[in-house]
Amino acid sequence: MVEDSLTTADCLQITREVGFDSLLTTGKPYTTSCPLPFQADSVKTARDVTRSTLRNWGLSELSDDAALVVSELVTNAVRYAMYSTAPQGIQLLLMRVAPHVLLAVADPSDEVPTPKEPDFVSENGRGLYIVETYSQCWGWDPLARGGKAVWALFRADS
């Protein structure tokens, strides 16, 4: 995890203030939202949107880490939520909450994201370990409409 004075309580306070349910349905300044289908190429789309948004915000230095984290979050959403019977798909949300950037991926699955002990030989199972390693903190919030938003917070120094 990236060293910072941000505590878990701070992370939770930021996500509660943001309110994912309202953000996913209404645009706010310094917010980018992108619907994604349950397809493997959604991961590339999410990376591209993340990189271009951060570049537009003057935060290119976060692009590599944020794109890696968003790849893992969208991959998990595609993998675990694609069989959901809910009508909504996946949604990527990026928000500048100075001095932080919040990335969130909402999906219709109510399954709680559970980190696994990383197996560095296996082809999968390292996603949340990567999210934890490259972000300041991460977590998930249930959505009122069903499903969840899994989020990661980054510090933006500019």
Automatic annotation (TrEMBL):
- Alphabetized UniProt keyword annotations: ATP-binding, Kinase, Nucleotide-binding, Serine/threonine-protein kinase, Transferase
Q: Does the keyword Thylakoid apply?
A: no
Q: Where is the Histidine kinase/HSP90-like ATPase domain?
A: 37-136
Q: Give the Gene Ontology MF terms in alphabetical order.
A: ATP binding; protein serine/threonine kinase activity
InterPro entries membership: Anti-sigma-factor_SerPK (IPR050267), HATPase_C_sf (IPR036890), HATPase_dom (IPR003594)
Q: What is this protein called?
A: ATP-binding protein
Q: Which organism is it from?
A: Nonomuraea montanisoli
- Specify the taxonomic lineage: Bacteria, Bacillati, Actinomycetota, Actinomycetes, Streptosporangiales
